[in-house]
Specification:
The chain has a domain of 95 residues: 2-Layer Sandwich (Ribosomal Protein S5, domain 2). Helix content is 27%, strand content 19%. It has five helices and five strands; from the N terminus they run ββββαααβαα. It has a five-stranded mixed sheet with strand order 1-2-5-3-4. Strand 3 and strand 4 form a beta hairpin. Helix 2 runs parallel beside helix 4.
Length: 150
């Protein structure tokens, strides 16, 4: 005897997502050494995300983590802004410097009255120091080959 089975499509009873609408982000770009950071800020709960990871997961050095809060503390926007960062190039310390500058620029765009405080604290100024190139006939940028008189 063949068993007749009726297949009923499964219905999912998920709660619909809360309609948040399009979020308006303010962009800021920061550079340091060979690092570039594109920083987006929007009013929110204070979430900081770098390359899809949380701040503590991405930056292991305490000094780097504290540096990112610098522009937020100067402008009293800590915990009020969501910060989403895409950083590439260079090392973690260079990326941190780029993030700080990009965050400062984004906050200045968000509220023009904050620019004076950010500029006074040095978060709007590009650090132009770069790695010196290696020269030909030498082992490095400044290091020479060992010299022997005889």
């Amino acid at each position: 005897m063949a068993e007749d089975t009726l297949q009923v499509p499964e219905t999912k009873t998920e709660a619909p997502a809360a309609p948040t609408g399009p979020r308006t982000f303010i962009w800021g770009v920061g550079r340091r050494k060979s690092s570039v950071a594109r920083v987006r800020v929007a009013p929110g709960t204070g979430k900081i995300e770098i390359n899809g990871r949380t701040l503590n997961d991405y930056l292991t050095n305490e000094r780097d983590r504290k540096a990112i809060f610098g522009p937020l503390e100067v402008t009293n926007t800590g915990g009020k802004m969501d910060v989403l960062v895409t950083a590439d190039g260079g090392g973690l310390t260079g990326q941190t410097g780029a993030i700080v500058m990009g965050l400062g620029r984004a906050l200045a765009k968000y509220d023009a009255s904050l620019e004076a405080a950010l500029r006074g604290a040095g978060f709007m100024t590009r650090d132009s120091r770069m790695k010196e190139r290696k020269k030909y006939g030498q082992r490095g940028a400044r290091r020479r080959f060992q010299f022997s008189k005889r």
